[in-house]
Specification:
This protein is mainly beta. The chain contains one helix and 19 strands. The strands form four sheets. Strands 1, 2, 3, 4, 5, 6, 11, 12, 13, 14, 15, 16 and 19 form a 13-stranded antiparallel beta sheet that branches. Strand 5 and strand 6 form a beta hairpin. The chain is globular.
């Protein structure tokens, strides 16, 4: 039996000011100013994991982690005619939010040494990403003399977003052969996401915003294979193949139209990589040169809240390197 455990503690306090200028061409105030003081983030966790040898070459692993996250921000959004705020002509609105989330996550796994250089494994694990908040304020809120006008107030669904969670299933094999001069790693996986966090440009109360929202459900499944072959003492070949099916399982970005079955952004169905490197031993060092290429199938970029979908054509990316 082998085990490990620990505690985690994080605290951050920040102050930031952003200026967005020259916006009058779009019918907006010349300066948008985002000033926040403080922006605070706290996270703490306790975790542990143990592996038990059930038989020669066969091991079982289990663990757990409990995490608490607290985030808050107090600041303002300024609509100004000049870089310096003028109380007589310029406006400021409250920009404040807070959220507390927690989650217990866990992994379970089995792995088995089929041979001295071959391992097979399977695992189930859960994951969690804390929730957060967007720019804006809630109706009736007021801090430091700055209020939240009713015309600009955001509903709770727009002001905050929920934690993102995933349950991941994976099985695979890792092996070396040809007198350990070649390797092959193959894995199949399936990820079930809930409340997937997405960020997009939106317009709320007639004003442009960059907002993070939650999609209902998403599913990602695929296969990955990669390895290396030492063809000679001076030459190595690397290869990798990824097959991917990633789509929304339940999502209505505008509350009306379903995006179930629509592919997730930046998830090409196929990616193939090949590389070759040659090493030349010189007095006092080694000169290494190589070439590599990746063939990437087409994929999608989208703005779900606006119903926009863009297709990025399939393409290749190649590199030459010398070192």
């Amino acid at each position: 039996l082998s085990a490990q455990g620990g505690v985690y503690w994080f605290r951050e306090r920040a102050r930031d000011v952003y200026y967005l200028r020259d916006l009058q061409a779009f019918g907006l105030p010349p300066y948008y100013v985002f000033g926040n003081d403080p922006v605070q983030s706290r996270s703490k966790a306790v975790f542990g994991q143990a592996t038990y040898r059930l038989a020669d070459g066969l091991r079982a692993t289990a663990g757990a982690r409990y995490t608490e996250d607290d985030k808050s921000r107090t600041g303002y959004i300024g609509y100004q005619g000049t870089p310096t705020f003028n109380a007589a002509t310029d406006l400021r609105e409250l920009n404040a939010g807070s959220i507390s989330t927690n989650k217990t996550t866990w992994p379970l796994g089995l792995d088995y040494d089929v041979a001295p250089a071959t391992l097979v494994y399977g695992s189930i694990a859960t994951g969690y990403k804390a929730g957060g908040f967007n720019d804006g304020c809630a109706a009736g809120d007021s801090r430091g003399g700055i209020g939240c006008p009713a015309a600009s107030a955001l509903p709770a669904a727009s002001l905050t977003y929920r934690p993102e969670t995933v349950r991941a299933y994976e099985a695979g094999v890792k092996t070396r052969f040809w007198d350990r001069r070649a390797s092959l790693n193959v894995a199949v996986f399936h990820y079930d996401y809930r409340n997937l966090q997405l960020s997009n440009e939106v317009v709320v109360n007639g004003r442009p915003r960059y907002e993070t929202t939650n999609a209902g459900q998403a599913a990602i499944r695929g296969l990955e294979a990669d390895g290396q072959v030492l063809a000679t003492r001076a030459d190595s070949v690397t290869y990798a193949l990824t097959l991917l099916d990633a789509h929304y399982a339940s999502y209505a970005p505008d509350g009306v139209h379903s995006w179930a079955g629509v592919k997730l952004d930046r998830t090409p169905a196929r990616t193939l990589s090949l590389g070759w490197e040659h090493r030349l031993h010189l007095a006092g060092g080694t000169l290494a040169g190589g070439v590599g290429t990746r063939a990437i199938a087409s994929y999608r970029r989208s703005v779900p809240q606006a119903g926009l979908k863009y297709r990025v054509p399939g393409h290749t990316e190649s590199d030459l390197d010398l070192g």
